[in-house]
Amino acid sequence: MRAKNLIYIILILLTLPTFLLAQQMNTVSIYGTVTDRDSNQPLADVRVEAINEADSSERAAAITGNDGRYSINLTTTAQSIELPNEFRLLQNYPNPFNPTTLVRFQIPQTAEVRLDIYNTLGQKIRTLLNQQLSPGSYTAEWDATNDAGAGVAAGIYFYRLKANRSVQTRKMVLLDGAAGRYSGTSVKPKTSAGILSKSHDMQITLRATSPEMAPYERKQVRVTSQSMQVDVDADKSSTILKREYIVVSEPDDNGNVYVSGLAGAVTCPVTRVGDLKIVTVTNLRTWEESSGQVDGAGGFGPIIMPAIIGDLLRVSFKGFSLTFEVIEGVPPSVVESTPTDGDKDIIVDAVIIVQFSEPIETSSVNQNSFTLTDSLGTPVPGEITFDNDNTMAILDPTDPLEYNSGYTITVTSDVTDLQGIHLESPYVATFTTAYSGRVLNVPSSQYPTIQSAIDSAFTGDIVLVANGTFYENINFKGKAITVASHFLIDEDTSHIANTIIDGSQPANPDSASTVSFVSGEDTTSVLCGFTITGGSGTKWLMGTLIRAGGGILFRNSGALIRNNIIKFNSVDSAQVQRANGGGIFGCGTGSKINIENNTIRNNFAVYGGGLCFFKSVNIINNKIIANNASGEGGGIWIGSPVSSYHLILNNFIKDNIASNGGGVVFWNKACNLKNNLIAGNLASDAGGGVLTIYDMFEERESLKY
Asked: In this model, does residue 456 exceed pLDDT 60?
């Protein structure tokens, strides 16, 4: 009995190594280009690292060359893989190239495979491959030489793949020509098993670091093939912190200094909603730290830090830092004012706030130090108070300001800090109040809902909504009014996230748009400072039965939609022929629609996951049109009469998904697409960034990836 057990143990021990060796190792190729998002220039000497999120010990890294390109081969333990299910010849990378490029292809079954290079005259100049291959994904390298080993001239070439009876051809461009060397052809099977199974997609974290850029990290990157392109949009350090806009005061009587960032001190785009920008100040003598949040204009502070003359303070943001010495005689500055210079539609009973870089000596302030004047230069009487340790002056006019009028704030340089140093220079800012009308506060005993206030409003009125969630489906009913959160008063962006109109509980499921403009409104109808969510669209007959406008619906109307978050609205095709505009939909005639400074994300529709228009529209300065999904036009779908004209300017259109036109789809229309960042969008069929099926399309200075 013991002998039999011993035999079993020996068999197990002999079998165990065989089992371990059968575990297959898999190599994934991750490649791409690192560019500066502002200048679109490639960045050299950047370390790019890929990490398997399932096993962080599986990682690999590469350094970018002068062209910003990198290529990483990450070896992982393959747990579940499957063969390619189709014959496919992929686009070479890089393209254009000099002097080498990689040609990738997939074959679903064992075949006699031939890969040839042809010039534009149809002459075969090189055979890269002619042999039998088993099913899998392969990469062949061409070094721009012919079969004799001589370098070929720059120009257009064609590469043709034949596997049994299947044939595919693609085009590539060689820059400058080869050096004339011959090193043979390297055919590299990724593995005999080919593409990773989609039931076990790998997820990696991609990191990029360099002294010349902000640290970059992108998590949960799904790797669904064994050769995958991932480009990196980087922030160069010179664009992160601006020394000339950062002010460090001298110590006050309590031994504190004040570190302030004027508007533009921090220039780093917001990449996701709720992503806070935090600046940290560190005293390098005591190692004390203090932090402050960056405002919408790129300013911050003042951040208070105990310090003495001669101390070095490090100001840090997202891994980058600048060092400042605490010195004597630093003049105070105005960090910002609310309203800021150039603001419009300011509520008439708002106070004016002036924020300083350090505490002000209030005894230096007289009746002429702060002035508020109307458009004729007439002083507006009021009261001045100080707050936040005398770093903030609050001007409260005695009477409400006039509607639709211009005003100027002036702070003279005779104002001093606690050391008696005068303001660096006079400060002047102008703003314009809103159209005449009443302020209808919601919620209140008179107006418990937003719609009840709209129903009672007249032209020029402001429906002012406090923070909270309102389960309503509101209709402007043709009124030239402003419906706004308290963001309209103080420009505190927290109001946008915390004042929510949720259309998920409609009285009529066929009229389930969260906000509707359907009675001939124009741009004097304003929606400002809300989160618009939960809408599922309105159903009606437009040639065919459609459902459209999950978040906001326009029919023969216009409006000004600004400073809103429009998210998690969904329009499906159940019981209708078309489902359009998950976030916003517009059609018909009437006033143009202006969509400005909004965040539009995570919406869904069959056409235009984020935005869908059959009429004229201006889409300007929207920070993020991201993570929307559709069958066509994940971010934006435009399909209006030829007489319509569309301006799409200064938008960030990123990470949207569609079958066709992951970022933007234009269908037979006249458009001006200018200065947009279009990146990371996916399309399973055509047009990952922009798909144009058009008659008149004007494209200028846009970035497409």
From this structure: yes
